[in-house]
Write a structure and sequence with these properties.
Elements (H helix, E strand, L loop, with lengths): L1 H18 L14 H14 L12 E7 L4 E8 L4 H14 L13 E3 L1
Antiparallel strand pairs: 1-2, 1-3
Helix pairs in contact: 2-3
Length: 113
Amino acid sequence: MNCKKNILIIISLILCFIVGINSVYSVETSIDYASYIKTMRKKVRSNWKPPINSQSKHVTFLITILKDGNLQSSKIIESSGNSILDTSAQNAIDKTFPIQPFPIDAKETSLNI
């Protein structure tokens, strides 16, 4: 059952990050991660300097954030097809971290977004 809860949290966080859903709660602690993810998303976007003539500006990453706000890993799950664009997005992610730690009541040790 715990695995199912974690999968639901991950799906909810991905939707929040991509679509901007207003509320994402941890099943375990009832913590709303929406503002946390919104802040992270804004920082990544402000750090991203895509190449000027890029046709597609869509690249999707799976990132794992540790409870202390450090980036554990990032992996491209959908490439833009342009390695320069993908690298610029990776650089923006790397530049964004560390971010603020999880809320004090968080029981999760990491989040996959």
